[in-house]
Amino acid sequence: xxxxxxxxxxxxxxxxxxxxxxxxxxxxxxxxxxxxxxxxxxxxxxxxxxxxxxxxxxxxxxxxxxxxxxxxxxxxxxxxxxxxxxxxxxxxxxxxxxxxxxxxxxxxxxxxxxxxxxxxxxxxxxxxxxxxxxxxxxxxxxxxxxxxxxxxxxxxxxxxxxxxxxxxxxxxxxxxxxxxxxxxxxxxxxxxxxxxxxxxxxxxxxxxxxxxxxxxxxxxxxxxxxxxxxxxxxxxxx
Length: 238
Hints:
The protein is mainly alpha-helical. The protein has 8 helices and 2 strands; from the N terminus they run ααααββαααα. The protein has a two-stranded antiparallel ribbon with strand order 1-2. It starts with a helix and ends with a helix.
């Protein structure tokens, strides 16, 4: 019932009801961050989609409205009867922890809580769905009690989290002379014998490469000069 009859009634209140306040609330919730023309078009499209989903036309609009509110009232009546004076809808479901039994909420409680809080806090006072809901005192009290519990738990957890943080006013550790304490830098890791040998080998290798390149250049230079001398002598004899 919560996800069908009550959900349909809430959609009808937000998108189809003729009261102008309902339309402005839906626009504020869903399209307030969009430019006015885009929000207007999307709002109009959503109204058409909801009417098509609920099969609402100009001919049966009044009949459909009566049916929607009748189902919503029947759902509120059934839920109010089921809840009674209990803390949750299914109070017979208990959770045992260390030999202690606790009443545990269910998915139905989560759905009902979200619906009731939205209707009571988001819809205007002129809403018919809100007026129907307010006729069931135990449903209203049920939602308000859980809301208070959730707010208290949230505030207490936030307070404990802030108390666990280290205080910024804690003074730094100072030495006997009054100067601020500074940690000593870590000493550089001494080079091992293997690293020293590796560095020496690298130097020797580079030096050998340099010597071989110089020797090659000197040999090639000598060969070129001797060839030039031979060519010059041959030309002179001719």
